[in-house]
Design brief:
Blueprint lengths: L4 H4 L3 H9 L5 H7 L4 H12 L5 E4 L13 E3 L23 E5 L19 H11 L2 E7 L4 H10 L5 E7 L5 E5 L1 H4 L12 E7 L14
Parallel strand pairs: 1-2, 1-3, 3-4
Antiparallel strand pairs: 4-7, 5-6, 5-7
Helix pairs in contact: 2-4
C-alpha cells in the first residue's frame, strides 16, 4: 500500500491546484482543503495520471483537473464535462478504470438529483468493485450510516484503507486502522474528519492477478 504517503504530504492538493491555476470559491479555499477533499484531489490527480480512458462516477475531478477526465457519469450535475446522465446501475463497468470521489454515499438517498430507486451506497460500491478493472473510490465516514456500517464493520478487503484528519497536526491526513476512523467529530471544520479509500490497480497491486503469476 503506497497511497498513504499522499496523506502525509498534507499540502499536496494545495500545490497541485496552485500549479494548475485553479480558482476556487471561498468554500474550497478556506474549508475544502482541510476536509477530505485534500486527500481526494491529490489521490485522484495521481490516479488519473496513471490509468488510461478513465470513467468517473460523480462529477468531482472536472472541477479541478478537467484535462484529465474521460467519461464522466452524473445524472444530477450540469457541468458540460458530464458525458453520461445515466444511473451507474444502468452501465457496464467491465474492463473500465473507474474513479468515484465522495459520491457513492449519496446513491439511493435522493440527494443531488439521484434517484432513490435502483440501489443504495453499498450496492454502488459492489457494482464498481465487481465489474471495474482498476478503481479508486473514496467515501467520507459519517455521511451514510448504511455505508459506514459496511465499510467499518462488515467489509474485509485488501484494497480498503482509512485516513483521518489530525487537527493537532495542522489538519494533516494520515492512515489509521478502521477502529480509529470510526471516532466521531474528529476536529472542527466542514466535511468529514475521516475517509475510506478503496483502490485497486495503481496504489495497490491487483490481488486477482498476483505478480508471481506468468
Amino acid at each position: 500500500m503506497g497511497f498513504w504517503l499522499y496523506g502525509d504530504e498534507h499540502t499536496y492538493a494545495d500545490v497541485l491546484l496552485a500549479q494548475a491555476g485553479v480558482e476556487l470559491n471561498p468554500y474550497y479555499t478556506k474549508a475544502a482543503l482541510i476536509t477530505e477533499r485534500r486527500v481526494e484531489v491529490s489521490l485522484g490527480h495521481t490516479w488519473l495520471n496513471s490509468v488510461s480512458s478513465p470513467w468517473e462516477v460523480g462529477a468531482v475531478m472536472p472541477y479541478y483537473f478537467p484535462d484529465l477526465c474521460g467519461v464522466v457519469i452524473d445524472p444530477g450535475d450540469e457541468s458540460p464535462l458530464v458525458t453520461l446522465k445515466n444511473s451507474l446501475f444502468d452501465l457496464d463497468f467491465k474492463g473500465q478504470n473507474v474513479l468515484s470521489i465522495s459520491t457513492i454515499e449519496h446513491v439511493g438517498t435522493g440527494q443531488y438529483g439521484l434517484s432513490k430507486e435502483g440501489g443504495n451506497a453499498v450496492d454502488a460500491y459492489k457494482k464498481i468493485t465487481d465489474e471495474a478493472d482498476k478503481f479508486l473510490i473514496t467515501a467520507p465516514i459519517g455521511q451514510n450510516k448504511t455505508l459506514d456500517r459496511f465499510l467499518l464493520h462488515e467489509l474485509e478487503s485488501p484494497y480498503l484503507q482509512f485516513m483521518v484528519r489530525l487537527p493537532e497536526r495542522d489538519n494533516e491526513w494520515v492512515s489509521v486502522p478502521k477502529e480509529q476512523a470510526a471516532v466521531p467529530n474528529r476536529g472542527k471544520g466542514r466535511g468529514s474528519g475521516a475517509v475510506a479509500v478503496i483502490e485497486r490497480g495503481v496504489f495497490n497491486e491487483d490481488s486477482r492477478h498476483p505478480a508471481s503469476e506468468g
